[in-house]
Hints:
By secondary structure, this protein is an alpha+beta fold. About 40% of the residues lie in helices and about 30% in strands. The chain is globular, with a radius of gyration of 14 Å. The model has no long low-confidence stretch (mean pLDDT about 95).
Amino acid sequence: SAYYAPSAAVIQMAEAILKDKKRLLPCSAYLQGEFGLNDVYVGVPVILGEGGVEKIVEVPLTDEERAALHQSAEHVRTNIAKLEI
């Protein structure tokens, strides 16, 4: 069902925060230099614990992967700019 996966992900995130599990999960996080990106929310691996996003985990990326991540971030910025009109 289309309801199961999103709800299961929310449960994992909530438990990681409420029970301070320090769990590695993919989440949208505000980047400030990580992966060479600044001032943008992008889906990246993070450690979730009592403090919310406690650490952004910078995994090694190939040049192709890094370019794709930067392109994705630019799409996010473009869409945000459209909302600000």
